[in-house]
Structure formats: C-alpha cells, structure tokens
Design goal:
The complex is a heterodimer of chains A (about 300) and B (about 425). Chain A has about 300 residues and is an alpha/beta fold. Chain A contains 9 helices and 13 strands. Chain B has a 4-stranded mixed sheet, covered by helices on one side. In chain B, a hairpin with a 5-residue loop joins strand 5 and strand 6. Classes of the chains: A alpha/beta (about 300), B alpha/beta (about 425). Chains A and B meet through helix 2 of A and helix 1 and helix 7 of B.
Chain lengths: ~300, ~425
C-alpha cells in the first residue's frame, strides 16, 4: 500500500517552474530517498506534502485520502533550515511542539521524558537551548520531529550539520523507526547515506522526476557489465586491451564483458592463470546520480 | 482554535516569566512618581528659601506700595537710580525697582535691575501689583473710594453643565476632560508602538532562527500570527493593569505626603497656563469631585479597552507582516513608514485638533478613520461623544482590523519562508496580490 501518492503535481513561482507534472508513489514502510541537486524542487515538494504551501495543480493522497489538515499530526518534518527557540527550556519546547501536532498534554509529557532518556539528555531538560552544546541541541531537534509519533517522517538533509557521532546516532534511530513500520522520506544530495539507508529512491532534476525505483533494481539497471578480476600464476602475456600489468605473476584489473557472458569470460581467463577473484562491479549511487544529471542537462 | 490557544499561551508565558518583564513592570511605575517626587521636593525646597530677598524700590510718584511676600521684601527709599544699581552690584539688595514719574493713563519706563535674570514669577507679581495700584489710583481720581473698590471686587467662576438628551444635567470641566483624553490617547499610542515592536521582534526571531518552517508544518501561518499578536497583547494588558494599580497607589502616597494635587492636573497647568488659571479660579475639591462624578467611567473604561485592543490588533498585524518580510531587525526600518505615519497623524491630531475642539470636522474624521481613531477617539470620548459617531468609529475599526490582518496575513504567509532575498514595496505588493 502507498502511504503517499503524488499525481501530476505542478508548482510555479513567478515564471519559474519548481515542480513540473511530477508523479511519485511512496510505499508504506521502508526508507525512501528523494534525491536531486540543490534547486531541483525537493524542498518545494516536501513543503507541499507538509501543507506549508499548495501546488498549482495535481493531487496528493495520504493513505488513500486527499491530503488535508488532519493529516498534519501523522507527519513529522525535519527541515533543512531548522532551529529551536533559544530561550526556551528543552522540556517546555518539546512539549510545545508535540502539542502543536495535536498530541494530548499528558501523553506529550510522557513521550518527552521517554525520548530525553533514550537520547541520554534527560538531565538537561530544564536547560535553555542556548546553554546546550550544538550536538545536544541537534538531538533535541531530532526529538522534536518524531515526538508526536508520526507515520510518515520527512527528513530534509538530516545529516547536514551533525557531527559524525551524532550522525551515527541519528542514523541508528532512523533504522529503528523503520523497523517499527514508520515510513521515512530522506531528501538529500549526499549519496553515501542513500546507499546505506534507502530501500527505494526517486531522483528529481530541474522540476522533473528523472528516475524512480528500488535501489537494487536501479543499480542493476545501471551496472556497466564490468567485472573485477584477480589473476595469479600468470604465465603468458595478457591481451593488450585488458590493460592489465602483472607483477610477480599477479594482476588485478577490470574488464567490460561486452557481448560475452560471465561464464564465457571466466573460461577465457582460465587460460592465462589461476582466477582468484571474479566480482561484478556495481555503480555507486553517486556515479548514477552524476551520470543522470549530465544526461539530462544536455537535453 | 486549539492551536492558536497554544501559541497564545507560549507567547504569554515566555514573556511574563522573564526577569526583564518583572523588572520593567515593577520599576516603570516607580520611575514616574519618583521623578515627580524629586521635582516637588526641589520646588518645595526653593519656596522655603530661608533667605528673604530684599528689593529696593524707588517711586517718584509716591503712590505705589508693594506688599512683601514670603520670598521678597520691599524697601522704599528716595535714593537715586545710580545708588540703587550700586546696591544691587554690591550685593546689598537682590534687585532694584525704579518707577519714574509716570502718566497713569499710559505708564512707561518702569525698570527692574537685578544681578540675576528675574524669574517670571517675580516680574508678573510686580506687574500685577503695580497694575492694581494704578487702577485703584485712577478709580480714586474719578471719585470712587478705595473701600468701594474693595467691596466691588468679585471672584467669578463659571460652572459648565452639559445637557443630556433626556434633560439630565452634568457638571463638566474642560481640564479634567482634556487630561483624561490626553492620557488615554498617549497610552494607546505607546502601547501600539511598544508591543507592536515586540510582535515584530518575535516574528524575526522565529524566522531568523529557522523555527518557522517547523512551526508552519504544524500550524497555519495565519493562526501562528494571530496567536502571537493576541499573546503579546495579553502581556501588554497585564503589564498596564499592574502599572495602573502601582502608579495609582504610589502616586497617591507621594502626593499625599507633599499634600499636593494629582500630577495630571499639574502637568495640564504647565502645558496650558490659561487652563491653569481657570483651574485656580474653581479649584475647590468639591467641584472637581462633581466633575468626576459627571464622567461615565464605565463607558470611558469600556471604550478605552476597546480602542486600546482594537488599535493594537489593527497595527499588530502590520508589525507582524514587517517582521515576516525582513531577515533582521535592522532591515525593518524601511517598512516602518506606513505604520509610523498614520499613528503620528493620530497622535498629533489628538493634540492639535481633537482635545481643543472635539466636535470639529477634523476631529470627527480623525476619530472615524480606523488608522487614527484608536488615539483620536479617546480625546473625544472624554468630552462625551454622540453615540452614532462612537458606533460608526467602532464598527470601522473592526472592519479595519479584518482588513489589516487579511493584508498582513498574505505578506506574512509568504515572507516567513523567504530567506536572504531583497524585499521591497513592489515585492510586498506582489505577495498581497498572490492568492
């Protein structure tokens, strides 16, 4: 089942199109990566899902229903540009955000205590944000996003500004939330986090969707059909187009298979020595991303 | 509705719980009476000057006599004017008054010499003494005895009574009305500026610290704006109530101590000597009490609260819009003019037109147009205003409030999400036109 279904969404600012007839479906559960360079239209899309702005045309469905104000309490949002009330106490602030998301006061207080303990900052609950270290403030920020137990969590560049230690904590929390059945939408242009976390992705470029699907499928689709090979005990001269240079009878190199099958190639390789390694090279998301953007830039 | 209430609570509590709020709330009412107290103390100290100042008088006509007062004693002699001046120079006399031989119907050439510039008090005292003496002398010369003159000297004070529609009579006093209108108008003017600014600062804080995007994903921008305006308004109302109680209490203690009249009255006399004179001529407590009894305080208080809040809400929305349009307080200046100008017109209009002639055409329009009415109408209300004018003005203020929040809401909604872009009036106009 789809938790979010976007149909032909268009949004224009002045004479600049931020989203152009964009359709997207985000399945329930799992982590969905929303990729694209800066200015692609990701933030506009996220703002429409959060009902901060409205699209000019097109439809958005949340769990099969047209998106409406009552859904706000089921969505959690960590914007790229984020902050907290500097002069407000941690505890008060979190309760306030939870209650703005329609959580009853008693439950909100209980959840705040739970999360402050879980994140190991309960002793700071009466401190003002001003008095916290940046890392602690970031934890509070993250708690404020999930405090109302949303079904859909939208994180816009969640790792920007986090130090490596906190980024790791947040990453583990995201995985834990996913295991609880919460759908996470991760908007980013950082590919390493996509590769580690996402099950499914969509790539947006210049207000258009240019790619969508399961991460493994996409990687398969864009594999260059190239293998990494390790040979040892080489006793003859290798073909020149392999660009392999043995040292002490050993060589590591990669070859594109072209029309050959892996088995055919393997048989061929055996004539030259002992095949110690034979592994398909899959493209990194980074490479696919750059490749796709280049392709679409020349259109 | 529930969410607006949450915002109101946060805005209210986060301000009221601050130490600076407590300090400002408690100290401000102390400052006003203590300044009054210091002035009174100095002026009382002056009038109790132990050194009696002696003024030498030379009268070539032999008819003038000036009675000595607590501060000045007059010594009459026949010395030459050169000798008189020398006495002043030597410090033997505080001053020297020379009255040459004069034509009583056209006196001229009377001169005062002093080492210091004489005070207004002294000169007017001398003038009125000499004037009275000349008048007496001339009346005497035309055959009226001094006893008769004294017998005919009468004090007059006019009691003003306004007639209500049903014929009821009300004792009025322009001074009391002036004072009430003046104070109420100024309080509303200050309230709008001080708390309007707080709204603006609050919006800029939310925008610049980037909380805004989190907030508007939970609550509609319009709700957020209204919550902030109402919450801060409640802070202001709380502060004013505490002030009124404290100022009232402390002032009456201070004034009671010095056995003096209320400060408003004094201020009026300073500002307008004519009114002061009028006041003197009828300065009996009973009359003032009667006047105060004649004022409908319930109506006055209710209209004050209405215009107080109405004016604040109308302008508060504009302050919020300005805050949303800029990234930092320093940029806000460029958009302040459309707020400042109508407020200043209302403020100046109150003094120049409304308080002096509450029923003139200009006063009518100033008190009807929503942008100036919160300040100007208070000047009219204290004198009593036709119920039709009041209803018209109040309805227009409500309409004005809806209009201002509608316009401001549009600017606010777009402005809060704009970072780092240069905004000018043209951009604002485009935002207002956007649906």
């Amino acid at each position: 089942m789809e938790i979010l279904e976007i149909q032909n969404l268009t949004k224009t600012y002045g004479n600049q199109k931020a989203l152009n007839n964009l359709s997207l479906s985000i399945p329930k559960g799992g982590i969905f990566g929303l990729l694209g360079p800066n200015g692609a239209g990701k933030t506009t899309l996220i703002r429409i899902i959060n009902q901060i702005i409205e699209g000019d045309s097109g439809k958005v469905f949340f769990k099969g229903e047209t998106l409406q104000p009552k859904h706000i309490s089921q969505i959690g949002y960590l914007p790229e540009e984020r902050g907290l009330y500097k002069k407000m106490k941690v505890w008060d602030q979190l309760v306030y955000f939870a209650r703005l998301k329609d959580m009853p006061a008693a439950l909100a207080k209980e959840r705040v205590d739970y999360w402050l303990k879980k994140m190991d900052i309960i002793s700071w609950k009466d401190k003002r944000i001003d008095d916290l270290s940046k890392g602690m403030a970031q934890k509070v920020q993250f708690i404020s996003t999930i405090i109302h137990e949303p079904e859909l969590l939208i994180l816009d560049e969640p790792f920007s500004g986090f130090d490596p230690l906190n980024a790791e904590i947040i990453k583990n929390e995201i995985i834990e939330l996913k295991e609880k059945g919460i759908t996470v939408v991760l908007s980013t242009h950082r590919m390493e986090s996509v590769e580690l976390l996402c099950d499914q992705i969509a790539m947006i470029h210049r207000s258009h969707k240019i790619l969508e699907g399961r991460l493994t499928d996409i990687k398969q689709r864009f594999r260059p059909n190239t293998y990494e090979i390790k040979l040892s005990g080489i006793n003859t001269i290798l073909p020149e187009n392999w660009n392999a240079y043995p040292i002490n009878g050993e060589a590591v190199f990669s070859i594109p298979l072209g029309q050959d099958s892996p088995n055919g190639t393997l048989t061929k390789l055996m004539q030259y020595g002992e095949v110690v390694g034979f592994k398909e090279i899959l493209p990194s998301m980074e490479e696919i991303f750059i490749q796709q953007i280049k392709n679409h830039s020349y259109e | 509705m529930n969410k607006i209430w949450l915002v109101i609570q946060r805005e209210y509590l986060s301000r009221v719980q601050k130490k600076s709020f407590l300090l400002a709330t408690l100290l401000t009412p102390l400052i006003f009476p203590s300044i009054m107290g210091i002035f009174l103390w100095i002026s009382i100290g002056e009038s109790e000057n132990p050194f009696l100042q002696i003024i030498e008088v030379v009268d070539e006509n032999n008819i003038f006599f000036i009675e000595s007062s607590e501060q000045y004693a007059f010594s009459f002699s026949k010395i030459s004017s050169e000798e008189g001046k020398k006495m002043v120079n030597d410090g033997d006399r505080f001053g020297f008054l020379y009255i040459p031989k004069i034509d009583l119907s056209n006196p001229s050439g009377i001169t005062y010499f002093g080492e210091k510039n004489p005070s207004m008090n002294l000169i007017s005292f001398l003038e009125s003494s000499i004037k009275r003496r000349i008048e007496e002398q001339r009346l005497f010369e035309s055959g009226i005895s001094p006893e008769a003159i004294n017998a005919y000297r009468t004090k007059v004070s006019i009691k003003a009574i306004t007639l209500g529609n049903s014929g009821e009579e009300k004792v009025t006093d322009a001074t009391v009305n002036y004072a009430i209108g003046f104070l109420a108008g100024i309080m509303i003017y200050m309230f709008i500026f001080i708390y309007g600014n707080q709204i603006m600062q609050g919006v800029i804080e939310e925008k610049s610290s980037r909380i805004i995007e989190i907030l508007v994903s939970s609550i509609k921008p319009f709700q957020l704006m209204m919550g902030k305006i109402i919450g801060i308004g409640a802070v202001g109302l709380t502060q004013f109530l505490i002030w009124i109680i404290l100022i009232g209490g402390i002032s009456s203690i201070v004034m009671g101590y010095f056995g003096l009249q209320m400060p408003q009255q004094q201020a009026m006399e300073l500002a307008n000597p004519e009114l002061g004179e009028m006041m003197d001529s009828q300065n009996n407590l009973q009359n003032i009490l009667q006047v105060i009894n004649g004022i409908d305080f319930i109506q006055l208080t209710l209209t004050f609260i209405f215009y107080f809040l109405g004016g604040y809400l109308l302008y508060g929305a504009f302050f919020a819009a300005v805050g949303a349009a800029v990234d930092a307080p320093s940029e806000a200046q460029q958009f302040m003019l459309p707020i400042t100008i109508p407020l200043l017109i209302g403020y100046l209009g109150l003094f120049v037109f409304v308080l002096n002639d509450p029923n003139s055409n200009v006063s009518f329009w100033l008190s009807i147009i929503p942008f100036t009415s919160p300040i100007a109408m208070m000047g009219r209300v204290s004198y009593g205003v036709p119920i039709f004018d009041l209803i018209l003005s109040m309805s227009l203020l409500v309409v004005g409030f809806f209009f201002s929040t509608w316009v401001a809401g549009k600017v606010y909604r777009i402005g809060i999400l704009m970072h780092g872009s240069k905004v000018n009036y043209k951009t604002l106009w485009r935002w207002i036109k956007t649906n």
